[in-house]
């Protein structure tokens, strides 16, 4: 499956210039039926939210109200950054007008936000992390937005979103926006993974890579080693292994989207394991790890909790966290082999001691 990225310095062809996101979604679905139109319109709305957030970020040091904190604490127990609150509002306002989405579930909101004027006609729920890596904002380092689209399967009066508590294989589409040197949008509707780059002169996301394939293995390992002593011995064993073996490179940017994006194109593995303080890890399943797991599997890679596929995990509440090992399949399997080895030793010890 050839990657059709244009050569360095070569102006993209007119045909490529015209491959906008909404056109690409319709092409992908080879249908102009209601579902295709809806998904295309939904992706267009996400693109609009991304453009608004990208514009705000690009002027963050120049205008008031972008950097710093709002003074509030969100459902995660984290101090809310002004840009978190702004980005969350952007997603709400661009989807309010969509008529397509009846409910929005976000990292910044304890309960899902209903758009009464879109219910019950709105057939989709959008789950999203409006700003991923917000600890990078005030240092002007890359951040992202992560999104997942699911079918609306009923109205839950108490806001517990029970119908969303299903495996990640129920996602219709997923992706992220990376606010880096350029703003990129990477998505999948279950037909491969494709990336678009925002061309500020056109104000359009233009196709930049199609059918992206995650290399089977890579030299990059991406993890916050500052948590080393809080990890299970099996993860420490893995890090000791990469320290002792040539050919591994540590890369950790503090923003999941940026770290995953690098691995999607170059191969390797990103880990955020559970720890003594947080056995279930830090990252949230429904709007952080499951959307990226959807992309990883579509690109020929893997995403694991260490013992099962992330896409098979069924959440028991909206903001559930999960350990994650994601990236090239050989690298993920290597990490898992250390976990399995420790489990085997532990079983043996229990057997011999009983
Ligand atoms: O600072 P730590 O503990 O390494 O955590 C960094 C991780 O947390 C995150 O920032 C997630 O949190 P936010 O979505 O709240 O920013 C990830 O992007 C990143 O991988």
From TrEMBL:
Entry's localization field: Cytoplasm
Key words of the record: Calvin cycle, Carbohydrate metabolism, Cytoplasm, Hydrolase, Magnesium, Metal-binding
PROSITE patterns for this protein: FBPASE
Pathway noted in the entry: Carbohydrate biosynthesis; Calvin cycle
One Gene Ontology MF term: magnesium ion binding
Ranges of residues in domain Fructose-1-6-bisphosphatase class I N-terminal: 20-209
Enzyme class, spelled out: hydrolase
Hydrolase is among the record's keywords: yes
Chemical reaction(s) catalysed: beta-D-fructose 1,6-bisphosphate + H2O = beta-D-fructose 6-phosphate + phosphate
EC code(s) of this entry: 3.1.3.11
Residue ranges constituting the Fructose-1-6-bisphosphatase class 1 C-terminal domain according to the UniProt record: 215-339
Cofactor(s) annotated in UniProt: Mg(2+)
Cofactor binding remark: Binds 2 magnesium ions per subunit.
Binding-site residues, substrate: 132-135, 224, 252, 282
One GO term (biological process): gluconeogenesis
GO cellular component: cytosol
Record text on subunit structure and interactions: Homotetramer.
NCBIfam families: PRK09293.1-1
Name the UniProt record assigns to this protein: Fructose-1,6-bisphosphatase class 1
Lineage of the organism: Bacteria, Bacillati, Cyanobacteriota, Cyanophyceae, Oscillatoriophycideae
